[in-house]
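In the previous chapter we treated chains in isolation. Here, by contrast, the input contains two separate entities that must be folded as one system, with a combined length of 227 residues.
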Amino acid sequence: AQSVTQPDIHITVSEGASLELRCNYSYGATPYLFWYVQSPGQGLQLLLKYFSGDTLVQGIKGFEAEFKRSQSSFNLRKPSVHWSDAAEYFCAVGPRTGTASKLTFGTGTRLQVTL
Amino acid sequence: GAVVSQHPSRVICKSGTSVKIECRSLDFQATTMFWYRQFPKQSLMLMATSNEGSKATYEQGVEKDKFLINHASLTLSTLTVTSAHPEDSSFYICSAPITEAFFGQGTRLTVV
C-alpha cells in the first residue's frame, strides 16, 4: 500500500533562515508528487508538483523540491523563510493516470516562524 | 489556475440533523471529484470519489449511508452528512482534478 511519511511534525525556524521539510514515500512505482500548504481553517494550495523531467522543481512563493528516486524522497526547501510562510505543509503522492487521481497525504509538518 | 469553490465554509448543526456541503468547479468540468476529511492536527483522509452520473466510490470504513454523495453535473458535487453526530465534527474538503488536484476552501462542520 502506498504511504507518505513526513517525519517532522513541527518545525520552528527564524525568519530569513533556510528551510527543508522532509518527505518520503512508499509506492509501487514512481508516483506523481506534490507539496501543498494549508493556512489555518483554509483549503490547500499547491506549492509545486513533480511529474517527470528535471528532478529539481520550482514552485510558488520561492519554494523548490528535489525528487530523489534512490531515496524515495521529495523534500521541500526554501532558502529564506518569511513570517507569512507559517502554515501546515503536506506532501502527497498520486498515481500516474494522466489526470490527477486521489491523493495520499502525509501527516503534515507545521511550520512556525519566529521573528 | 482552476478554481474549486466549496460552500459553506463553516456550519454548526444540531445532532440528528443533516448538512449538505457543495463543491463546485468554477471554470472547468470535473467528471470526478474527491472528498476528504481532516481531523484536527491530522492529515487528510480520502472519504470517497464522486463520479458524475454514477454512484460514488467510498473508501473502506466510510459509511455510505451517512455520507451521501451526489454528482449531478460536471461542475457540482455534494456531500450530505446525514443524522450528524458530534463525532462527525471535522473539516471536510473537496478536490477536483485536471492535471493536478485543485482543492476547495474546506468546510468546518461542528455538530452540537
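The interface with chain A takes residues 1, 4, 6, 32, 34, 41-46, 49, 91, 93, 95, 97-106, 108 of chain B (CB under 8 Å). The radius of gyration of chain B is 13 Å. Compare these points with the single-chain example from earlier in the chapter.
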